[in-house]
Write a structure and sequence with these properties.
The chain is of the alpha/beta class. It has 7 helices and 13 strands. The longest helix is centred in the first third of the chain and has 25 residues.
């Protein structure tokens, strides 16, 4: 493992996103408490504490998983693994590289965010979900390109925290893999949160030279945003050396 045990889900996916969503949900409950006859003087997001809680949850799960793996007598080797032959693995580390042999090799290298060729990630303005989960400060505004599960989750989190959010989806509805009524329901609830939904729209250009950045849609509309989150899916993480060494036939 070259980074952290647990992969995307534990470290920069499901677990941290659901932890932030739980904080967002709690904040909204307090903000709407008066509707239930409960008086709350104020409810504000303490972002450093929210992020600290998220990090603690991730760290706790990571520690537990590491212990579970070791209890099953599985050895964890830190480093970047490259398959150099059908039964040979090279492990690149900060120290001396290792060579190990195995009768069977399982490739479980996961995935990473897909980029839009015309809107590459820069880690600052144009970001992936990984950066969106680790902001040091709540952004004033955000455009989310991609209305799938990841994009909609991040929209919920940051709209609850006070960010002005716009979400752009090229297909005809948000969460396009689900039934139409699901997309309509989400769009209606997003409106209550102050989220602007732009469905059936593609992004034609992004101008990062201005502050805030400008996102232009195919209908000519321009949206300004401090952050641009690209969430248009994920692609496999596998290096060319491994593909060539195993003569893998890729279909994507």
């Amino acid at each position: 493992e070259k980074e952290f045990i647990g992969g995307t889900c534990l470290n920069c996916g499901c677990i941290p996103s659901k932890t932030l969503l739980a904080s967002a949900h709690t904040l909204l409950l307090f903000k709407h408490a008066a509707m239930m006859g409960i008086d709350v003087s104020s409810a504000t997001a303490n972002w450093p504490k929210i992020q600290a809680r998220k990090d603690a949850v991730v760290s706790g799960f990571r520690k537990g998983l590491t212990g579970l793996i070791k209890s099953h007598k599985v050895k964890i080797l830190p480093g970047r693994a490259v398959v150099t032959a059908p039964n040979q693995i090279k492990i690149e580390t900060d120290a001396v590289p290792m060579q190990i042999q195995a009768g069977k090799i399982i490739l479980a290298t996961g995935s990473q965010p897909s980029q839009i060729p015309t809107v590459p990630f820069d880690g600052q303005t144009v970001i992936s979900s990984k950066e969106a989960l680790a902001f040091q400060q709540i952004p004033n505004s955000m455009v989310i390109i991609g209305g799938g599960v990841i994009g909609c989750e991040m929209a919920c989190v940051y709209a609850a925290m006070g960010t002005k959010v716009a979400i752009v989806e090229a297909l005809s509805q948000l969460i396009p893999m689900e039934d139409q009524w699901v997309g309509r329901l989400i769009e209606r609830e997003f409106k209550k949160l102050g989220i602007d939904s732009h469905t059936g729209q593609k992004v034609t250009s992004v101008d990062k030279t201005s502050t805030p950045a400008k996102v232009v849609l195919e209908d000519g509309q321009t949206i300004e945003a401090e952050k641009i989150l690209v969430s248009v899916g994920r692609r496999p993480v596998i290096d060319k050396e491994t593909i060539e060494a195993l003569n893998l036939q890729m279909n994507g």
